[in-house]
Structures are given as C-alpha cells and as structure tokens.
Amino acid sequence: MEPLRKTLSIHTSPHIASGADVARIMRHVIYALLPVCGFAIYAFGWAALLTLVVAVVVCWLSEVLFCRLLRKPATLADGSVTITGILFALTLPPGLPLWMTVVGAFAAVGLGKFLFGGLAANVFNPALVGRAFLQAAFPGAMTTWSPVLAADRFSQIPSSLLAAPFMQPNYDTVSSASPLALLKFEHTPTPLGDLFLGTTAGSLGETSSLIILLGGAYLIARGMMSWRIPAGILVAVAVVGGISYVADSERFGSPLFMLFSGGLMLGAMFMATDPVSSPVTHRGCFVYGLLIGLVVVVIRNWGGLAEGVMYAILFANAVSPHIDNWLQPLPFGRKPGHGRERGS
Amino acid sequence: MSTRPLFSFFGGVHPPMHKDVSTGQPIDVMPLAERYILPLHQNIGQPAKPVVSVGERVLKGQRIGHAEGYVSVALHAPTSGTIADIGAYPVPHPSGLSDNCIVMTADGADEWTECVALPDYENINPSHLRNIVREAGIVGLGGAGFPSFIKLNPGTHKKIDTLIMNGIECEPYITCDDMLMRERAAEIVAGIRIIRHALQANRVLIAIEDNKPQAIKSIEEAIRGESAMEVVACPTRYPQGSEKQLVEALTGKEIPSEALPLHVGIVVHNVGTAAAVYRAIMLGEPLTSRIITVTGGGVAQPRNVEARIGTVIEDILAHCGGPTAETRKLIMGGPMMGFALHSDRAPVVKTTNCLLAATAEEIPDRGPALPCIRCGACSDACPARLLPQQLFWYAQAKDLDKIQEYNLFDCIECGCCAYVCPSNIPLVHYYRFAKTEIWAREREKEKAELARQRFDFRQTRLEREKAERAARHKKKRDELHSEEPSAAPATETKKAAILAAMERAKKKKDAPRITPANTEALTPQQQQMIEEVEQRRRQSRPNPEQQSAASNGDK
Predict the structure, then answer these.
(1) Hey, which CATH number is domain B20-106+115-359, 3.40.50.11540, 3.40.50.1580, 3.40.440.10, 3.40.630.30?
(2) Pairwise CB contact (< 8 Å): A276 & B330
C-alpha cells in the first residue's frame, strides 16, 4: 500500500485534544457580560449604549490597525479585544464625552495590549490601562457622575457626550456623587439595597452587584474562571474593611458597604480574573485576590481617592508573576518529608 | 469487588474512550506470515545481541538474540524458518529511522523448539525464576518495555508488602489488557501467583478501571479462594495507569520523585506481563507473541489480535481489513502517548499494545497554536503537579536552567496539558525538545570537562619535562665547566667518553631488553618454556642490533 505511506501525517503525542479553545472561552465571558451591559443601558440610557458601542468599535479598529502595523495575524476573531472594549466602557462614568472614550479605547488596546506584544503578552489588564490613562488625563470628567435612572435617559443624548474634543464638556443635569464619594467626602452612607440592585450613581457597569455576581457565577460554574481570585478579594475586603469599621465606624464604611459599592464586584469578577495578567497557581490566585482586596480598602480608607479598585488590580497585575514564582506547587514526589534519596 | 476506600491522584483528564470499537470480537490469532522482522532493541536498556547467522534454520521459540548487559532480555524466533538477513530495517520509532533487526523467513512448519516447563516453581529459587523470565525475553507489556525480571527482584533491604497488578488501561482506544483479562483470566492469575512467589509479596491488588466490568468479573472469578488477592475497581481517569499515579490511587503513597515503588515496598506489573510469566514458567514458552488492539476508522474490522512479535504492521492491518483510503494517521500506542508511524513496513514489537489507524475525522490535525493565555487549565490537569505553562515559557526561551528549576524532568509526558490547552499549543513537544537540549548540553559539558582535564594534564606533563630537561642541561653544563681546567686533552676525554658510551650501549644490547615481572622461583619446565619463547623471539627479530641501536638513539 504505497499510497498509505505517502498520505500518513506525522504529529507528536497527544494526538487528541479536548476541544477547548480560546475563542470559546472569550465568547462565554462576553455572554456573562451581556446582562451587565443590559443593566447599564437600562440605568443610563443612550449614554450607556453609545459609550459601549463607541468603545467596542474603537477597540476593534485599533486591534486591526496594530495587527497590520506589527504584521501580526489578525486576532479580532478570538474575542479578547471585544471583552477589552466592553469592560473598558463599563468602567466609565455615564456622561463621559465620547471623544474621551475614543482616546481611552485606543490607549487600552495600544498601550495596554500591543505595547507588550499583543494577545496574551500584556502585563496589565488592557481595559484598566485605558481607564487609568483617562483618569490621569481627565480627572474631572472621570469623576463626574450622572444620576441613575434619569427620566430623560432614553429621550435625549446628554450634551456632555457629544462635546467637541478638547472643549470643556457641558453637563446638562446636576451631577450626583457616587456612593463612595458620598461616604468619603460627605459622610453619607448609601442604603445597601440600592448598592446591591444598582440604583445608585456610578460607572456604567459597576452599579449592580447582583447582576455582576450572576455573571461571575455563570463563568465559575462553566469552569472558565478561577473562583479563588474573587474569593480572595471579597474575603480581604470583608476582613480588612471589617476591622477598620470596628475601629472607626464613623469614618469608614461597613464591610457590606465596601463589598457592594464602587467597582469592587466588577473588578473582582471580570477584571482581576483576566487570566493573562493574573497568577495561575491555586495558592497564587488566592494570595493575589487577598492583595487586591487589601489595597482596595487601604486606598478607599486612607488614600486621596474615593475608589481604589483600578489601581489595586493594576498593582497586583504587576506582582502576579512574582506571586506565581513564590508559590510554585510542589511537584509529585517532592514533598519536603520525602527527601530526594533513593532507596537502594 | 473491593470496598477498600480509594485514594486519588492529582490532575488527569477524561478523554472519550472509544474502547467498544475493538471489544466486539474475541481475540483473533493472526495466521502465520511469510516474513518476520525482529528489532534487536525492544526493551528499555541494552539491545539483544544476535546469536544466529544468516541462512541458519531456527525453531519457534529458539533464542536468536542474547541478553547483553544487565538491563536486557533475550529475543526469540516467532516461528520456525531461516534467518534471511541481519541488518538495518525500519523499526517502530518516532524518528522513522531504521535499526538492527533479524529478518526471518517462515518455513510454514511452525515447529517448536524444546520447552522446559517448571510447574513446581514454588520449590525453585527465586533468582532462578528471574533468570528464566529474563531468558524468556519478557518485558513489561504495558508499553514501557522495562525488563520484567528486574522487577521480580525484591532487593535485599525491603520486604514487598503489595504487588499491584496494573489492568487499568487508561488510554483511549486500547483494549488489549481488557480482552486478555476477559478471555484468559486463569493465565493471568497463574502468572500473578508466580510473581507473588518470586517477590514474596504479602498481598496483591489487581487494579482495573471501572469501565471494564467484564474484565473485573472475569478476574474476580479467577481469584476466588485466593485470600491475598483482591480486585480494586478504580474510577476511570487518565493517566491512572501510570505507575506512580496508580500507586497513589491505590495506597495513598506518593513515591518520591527519583525513587521507585520498590522503595515503599510496592511492585507494579502489567496483567499482560503476568500472562507471559505464566507461559514462560508453566509451559516453558518464551515471549514470541502478544495481544495487540487494532482499532480506529482506518480498519474495517477493528479487534484484538494475538500477533507474533515481528509481524509487519502492513500484514496486521490487512488482516483487520485495512488500511482504508481514509486512513490519515497510524499510531502505535494510544492517542495520548503513542507515536505516529511513518510507514506500515515496520514490525510490531514486544511493547506494541495498540495500532490505531485513524481517519482525519477521528483524529483531526491540530490547529495552529495561539499564544498562551495563562488560563491554567494545564496545571490543573498535570498529574505531576507541574506548571506546564511556565515550562512552555522557558522551553520557548531555551532557558534550560530555569526550566529545570520548574522540575521539567518530573514530567511524564502523559499529554494531559496539551490535551486541555485551549490555545492548541503542542506542550509535550516543547518539553521533549527541552529535555533533549539539556541532555545534549550535559554531554557537551562532560566532553568539555574531559578535554579540559586532558589539556591540564598535558600542560603539567610538558612543564615537568621542560623543568627536567633544564635541570639535566644545567647538570651537564656544570660538569663540563668543572672539567674546564683540563681543556687541552679535550679530544682525549671526548674519545674516552664516546668509547664508554659505546661500551654501555653494547652492554645494553646484550642484556635482556624486558625484565619479566615474574622471574623468581621458576620451575625447570617454566624455565624451559621461557627459553623456547626467547628463542622464537630472537628468530622473529632478524636484526636486533639495528633495532636496539635505533631505539637507543632517542635516549
């Protein structure tokens, strides 16, 4: 059978695969994010929808541009840049001028992803890099919050959204403060129910802890996300926040307030768990989560900013390779009691 | 069945098993072929050395290869016939290269050589039993091919508590052990009794994965009344059949990284090996055939065959109605750890447990590898508890020191990491590459070290010689200078010196050139023998004067 020898294909073992693929994982993350986007649109109307669309489209275009420039194969189809776009939009305040969104989305993909070499080479979460860029460039606009569930949210587009580039945006309505800023600067706590359901001011996707938790639970149940990272974050925030609350309940928020306010849930479920920039070892994931939780509470309680999730995650991203290195699991047969001696 | 609390092992995967493809029919004995190719290297360790010559007639079961070195076993003729050739032929190896083989042409008589059975093995010294197993050419039939007689040696320092019989067969598609346990349980159990006797083991655990209920039933019936033997049904998971993982799953003991199960009082043998041991001891038959699963969409009648060692793969595939036109892959072993064959002209060997002729739909080509997204699925699947993504990273960077810090050599190449990888990265291939790079580097280092030592030694020798020469010259010069006053009769002294030198040279010539080491207290006969030898020596050297003069000239 001469033909057989000619048609045999030679590969190394293993010859079979489980069928898991990156695009499928990314697709499920997008599914988990869709309810969060839906709620953002419900809560903030046209502003949310436009910001989401603009952010995702600009991320796509930047991805195509950078792939061309760097002569890399196009990676648009794997879905990771779509997640970057959605997550980036969800961290923005609802009234942010769209031109800023464009700049931030471009920075997210350019600085956060391709500066390091593209897919899976980034040290930091690209969406958060984009947000950090805007926070540094436009601190005012990034901390101006539109009221939630405004009556005219579906009837007109806020004029601030359409502000011309480099012009002072003109906010139509009286801006409201986020629950964290209210507590920090005005010592006014927000009711927990509002925080949990999301009927508070805040960034597009961070307000409803309930919906974010559902999305996270979906990914964990599908085995597509490490539960150890969010667990570490929530435990650290509850414990450290609890201790500071016991020490000074006038000044600091309660642990439950800490858990359900600001970007903590969104960060814990969808940003810190980005596999590329987080550890892989089981213990490392937990330690990484604890570290993020600790830094969040420290910034919120004692820092100059009302919110600290973004910086906490970026900081932990930077140390995550060291955490993995430090907490390497012991391979099979190398338990300390074992020694390495051979019997005979 | 055992109710023993089972332990577990870390990691592993659950690939689709496809076992029933080949279990529909009973074991089919392959008819005699015309030609057999017997690679001399079929086991871990050293290859056998041929003890037959081309053209010689051999009988079935006759030894044609001699075990060379300790970690080696004998090789036997699979049928009667003539030795057609000894030389390089294609062998089943990932490289696709040829190796030394003995080629036999069958004469059709299939005439056995004389077999010596030892049914009374209980009264035979275990070391003698081991030797028979070695001479019978038995290696581990599970796939690795480690000479079995070595694992029949309990050693002197440790009592063997548990003999584990491995009937796990955790790789997809492979069913040869399953079918053997179903059909020849009595042979297996008889072999287990012999192995247990050789090891003096307290108890025997026969481990079978719970996806083989018929095999479990059949072995349980065969061990009825054996108080020390027990069947343990293990929940199916790949790679449970790996020796160390199996020991942990059954006993909870984690064997240290560089040790053997023997060091915790455990020995593991494959069930197929037990059947071979039974045949060697009770019937006196060496290992000349084995059960091979022939499966996959590339053969029309997938089933298990009993094939003689050395049968050409082409013949086996043809016997099972293959290969079909859709066959795109031919794998020896299972799809997780087996290797792709380059051609079907190679023969099957003692370690061939499966021939998987697969179509492109069954085993599609791996897609292009994407960047690692560090999802960590590989480290959750790794039974060696390594960090495969880190190993990959360092293998890619060729950072051979760092990769060893991450314990590359604890990798058993089971393939779980690459199996679960969503980015399609051929991880195991990277580890093999890194391992061979490290071995090559070690060899280079050793070579360089040897060369350095040689160079250093030569340098010291040259310096020493130079110093000696200088000292000699100085001495000479000093002597000459001391004779300076009597400079006038210099020619006289020179002449005298030359004469004296010639005298010395003549004396040296006459004296025996070699001083024999053993010259005292010789008997007259010895004396005479020496004389005779000397006589012959002088005769063989017609002009000794010239030779010695030439050699003296150097001094």
Answers:
(1) 3.40.50.11540
(2) no
Residue type, position B266, single letter: I
Summarize pLDDT for A301-317 with one digit per residue, the tens.
998 888 899 999 999 99
pLDDT computed for residue B547 by the predictor: 47
- Examine the domain organization and report whether A207 and A242 are in the same domain: yes
Tens of pLDDT, residue by residue over A153-166, are: 888 888 888 888 87
What residues does each domain of chain B span? 20-106+115-359, 369-467
Question: ipTM more than 0.85?
Answer: yes
Residues of A within 8 A of B428 (CB-CB) are 12-14
Residues of A in contact with B337 (CB under 8 A): 13-14
Q: Structure tokens of B48?
A: 């056998």
What separation in angstroms does the CA of B291 have from each of B28, B102, B141, B303, B348? Answer: 9, 21, 9, 10, 11
Coarse DSSP helix, strand, coil percentages of chain A, rounded to the nearest 5 percent = 60, 0, 40
Do the chains contact at B410 and A333, CB–CB below 8 Å? yes
Q: How confident is the model at residue B468 (pLDDT cuts 50, 70, 90)?
A: very high
Whether A17 maps to a domain, the answer reads no
Q: Which residues pair with B37 in a beta bridge?
A: B103
Residue ranges making up the domain that contains A209: 177-326
Whether residue A332 is contained in a domain is answered as no
pLDDT at A53: 97
Which pLDDT band, with edges at 50, 70 and 90, does B52 fall under?
very high
Full-model pTM? 0.83
Q: How far apart are CA A335 and CA B180, in angstroms?
A: 37
* pLDDT tens per residue, range B120-143: 888 888 888 999 999 999 999 987
d(CA A272, CA B282): 66
Asked if residue A321 and residue A190 are part of one domain, the reply reads yes
- Residue A333, domain member (yes or no): no
Contacts of B387 (CB under 8 A, 6+ apart): A280, A281, A324, A328, A329, B379, B406
What is the tally of structural domains in chain A?
A: 2
Per-residue buried b or exposed e for A215-245, using 16+ beta carbons within 10 Å of the residue's own CB: bbebbbeeebbbbbbbbbbbebbbebbbebb
Last residue of a domain, one of A175, A190, A215: A175
B490 vs B315, B472, B482, B486, B503, CA distance in Å? Answer: 95, 21, 13, 7, 20
Contact at CB, A12 and B157, closer than 8 angstroms: no
Nearest to A4 among B259, B327, B385 (CB): B327
Phi, psi at B345, each rounded to 5°: -90, -15
pLDDT for residue A340 is more than 50: no
Contacts of B327 in chain A (CB under 8 A): 4, 7-8
Asked if residue A320 and residue A185 are part of one domain, the reply reads yes
A230 shares its domain with A285: yes
pLDDT band at B549 (very low <50, low <70, confident <90, very high): very low
- A112, A190: one domain: no
Q: Which residue has the higher pLDDT, A83 or B481?
A: A83
> Is A119 domain-assigned?
yes
